[in-house]
Design a protein that fits this description.
The structure holds two protein chains of two kinds. Chain A is an all-alpha fold. Chain A contains eleven helices and no strands. In chain A, α10 runs antiparallel to α11. By secondary structure, chain B is of the alpha/beta class. Chain B folds into two domains: 173 residues, D-Maltodextrin-Binding Protein, domain 2, CATH 3.40.190.10; 134 residues, D-Maltodextrin-Binding Protein, domain 2, CATH 3.40.190. In chain B, 45% of the residues lie in helices and 19% in strands. Chain B has 14 helices and twelve strands. In chain B, the strands form two sheets. In chain B, strands 1, 2, 3, 4, 6, 7, 8, 9, 11 and 12 form a ten-stranded mixed beta sheet that branches. Chain B has a two-stranded parallel sheet with strand order 5-10. Chain B is elongated. Classes of the chains: A mainly alpha, B alpha/beta. The interface between A and B is large, with 38 and 43 residues.
């Protein structure tokens, strides 16, 4: 009887696992199926290396190099801003605070992660974009920089929590030794904690990069959505916002529709690479 | 023992979920096909629910009419004594004109809403039996921020000038009129593949492309907000939105024609688009009953209230 129960239980677990795996497989297959129609018309290489996107134009006007670059650019700007802040916060959290304060700050960081992205986008649109227009007299505040700043706030929790975890471990491991040697805390942070946790800083960065590249709503509201070559103070377009913007209007079954799936496929491949890198880094942390 | 019962229950629950989940999906299309083919009402086929999907311009109008309809009748037997006593449920969701056609085509919703003409290939796909209702007309006004002195100097732009502004030939406002400041023109548009842009492209731009660095707004609301927020912005705000935000943005004349209701209806104002509801196949009696209200004078009143020009 007990054996039977165990068997049923294991079978059930396997079934549920299979279900979640199948779900992923179906999504990948579906996107692949819809984009293959497009790739039959336009080669992948031309699709990702061409410079103009105009859904109303001819075949060779459907290419997304500026959009791919825009996706990467906005995420990188976001990381450049959030990395120093995030790592700094993690150092303070792990080495300079007592338990109560730590709990409070972690709670706040968690709340930061829980705010819906459209709220960030809204604030970005009304405060940040407006600020650029009024203070720096930009013609229009929508820019890569605005997108990067909004993204950096959204990335912070990821970087902080990844770094904080391993830094605390390192701190607990070495605090006694460094106290015994009488070195200052800042020396310990610089010489032990930061170097020891460099892998998790990297992991946090890659995780945030993946998060940033997939972010849709908040970014869409502040970057202007113009599919041109990105520059820091110019408008740009990212793949997720391109899809969100145009999918509702694309005629079903048209080349435009399949091109959007194809760009979704490109994004998926990009995120897949990011995740593999993340996996490799994480693996090397454990050893 | 207790554990075992719990396990059994959870297994049953999961399978029940799976089975009902699949069952519904399988049953729904056949049901709608039935009513589509026969067009005859059977009491067992009666569907108290109705769904609309499509254009974000038309969605608020439909949901206003639907709310009104539901408040007035509550249950179907109040609409027509032949209908069973079931609560009326009308769901309206927005996803763009393309999504509206898709929903009607795949019958994921009963009606599709469009804020543009139905394309020929879409008509073909919808089949001969398709029904369409033109509810009203929405015009796109070329609007600027009230702080932009342009509307005081000249409140009239020719198609040629609009074309030059939107294509990027005029980059600064002083190129449009010398007395204006040397400030960059911020062009705001909707997404290039969308219904609103299609109308604008056809009636003004022709084969000329809009400048590549124009801001593409995700919705008409966002476009209007951008014009209200940015002094140097110009964009094609819909007539309805301009009426709702009177004074916050200024619509200009096009080729000397002011975007007024009269000019839009008689067709002299050139940048306009129809608001259409489509259905694949015949209407069921209950759907007919609702569409009768939509196309009635009362429906027209609501359409007008929302800032659009009713078609009848």
């Amino acid at each position: 009887m007990k054996k039977l129960r165990d068997k049923i239980f294991i079978f059930l677990l396997k079934l549920l696992t299979l279900f979640s795996l199948l779900l992923l497989a179906f999504i990948v297959l579906f996107i692949l199926k819809e984009s293959i129609v497009f790739f039959k018309e336009v080669s992948i290489l031309r699709f990702i290396s061409g410079k103009s996107w105009n859904p109303l134009g001819s075949l060779d006007k459907l290419s997304i190099l500026p959009v791919i670059l825009g996706t990467i650019y906005v995420s990188l700007v976001g990381i450049l801003i959030s990395l120093p802040i995030g790592v700094g916060t993690a150092v303070v959290l792990s080495s300079y605070t007592n338990e109560n304060l730590k709990r409070l700050i972690r709670g706040i960081v968690d709340i930061l992660a829980g705010i819906p992205s459209v709220v960030y986008g809204f604030i970005g649109l009304l405060v940040l974009v407006k600020f650029f227009e009024v203070r720096f007299s930009f013609a229009s505040g929508e820019s890569v920089l605005a997108g990067g700043i909004v993204l950096s706030i959204m990335m912070l929790p990821y970087i902080i929590s990844t770094c904080d975890e391993s830094m605390e471990k390192v701190y607990n491991e070495y605090s006694q030794h460094s106290n015994a040697l009488g070195v200052s805390k800042s020396y310990m942070v610089r010489k032990i904690i930061l170097p020891e946790s460099r892998r998790s800083i990297l992991a946090g960065t890659v995780l945030a990069l993946g998060r940033g590249m997939g972010e849709t709503m908040a970014v869409m509201m502040v970057i202007g959505n113009a599919p041109i070559m990105p520059a820091l103070f110019k408008k740009c377009q990212t793949i997720p916002s391109l899809i969100a913007l145009e999918m509702g209007m694309a005629e079903v079954g048209s080349l435009h529709y399949h091109a959007l799936f194809a760009s979704g496929f490109v994004l998926m491949v990009m995120l897949f690479i990011v995740n593999i890198v993340l996996y490799l880094i994480k693996k090397s942390i454990d050893i | 023992m207790k554990k075992r019962v719990g396990l059994l229950l959870s297994v049953i629950l999961i399978f029940a979920l799976i089975i009902t989940g699949c069952g519904n999906q399988g049953a729904a299309p056949t049901e709608s096909e039935d009513t589509g083919d026969n067009g005859v009402e059977k009491s067992s086929d009666f569907n108290a629910q109705m769904t609309f999907n499509g254009s974000s311009t038309l969605a608020p109008v439909m949901s206003a009419i639907a709310t009104d309809f539901i408040e007035e009748y509550e249950t179907w037997n109040n609409v027509n004594p032949d209908f069973p006593e079931e609560n009326i449920a009308i769901y309206v969701s927005a996803g763009g004109s393309g999504a509206g056609v898709k929903a009607a085509l795949e019958e994921t919703s009963d009606f599709g809403m469009l804020a543009r003409e139905i394309k020929d290939e879409e008509k073909e796909k919808l089949g001969e039996n398709m029904k369409d209702f033109t509810l009203g007309i929405d015009a796109l006004t070329i609007s600027v921020n009230p702080e932009n002195p342009l509307h005081e100097i000249k409140d009239d732009l020719s198609s040629e000038e609009i074309k030059k502004i939107f294509s990027g030939e005029y980059k600064y406002w002083d190129e449009v009129d010398e007395s204006l400041e040397h400030k960059e023109i911020v062009v705001v548009i909707r997404d290039l593949g969308g219904g609103a842009h299609g109308v604008f492209q056809n009636s003004i731009m022709g084969d000329t492309q809009v400048r590549e660095d124009a801001i593409q707004s995700p919705s008409m609301g966002a476009l209007v907000t951008k014009i209200i927020e940015n002094k140097d912005a110009i964009g094609y705000a819909s007539f309805g939105m301009v009426n709702q935000n009177e004074g916050k943005l200024i619509p200009l004349k096009v080729d000397g024609v002011e975007p007024t209701k009269e000019n839009i209806v008689d067709g002299s104002y050139k940048i306009s688009r129809p608001l259409i509801v489509v259905k694949k196949g015949d209407l069921t009696p209950e759907q007919q009953a609702f569409m009768d209200v939509v196309t009635s004078e009362k429906g027209a009143e609501i359409i007008e209230e929302m800032g659009f020009v009713p078609a009848n």
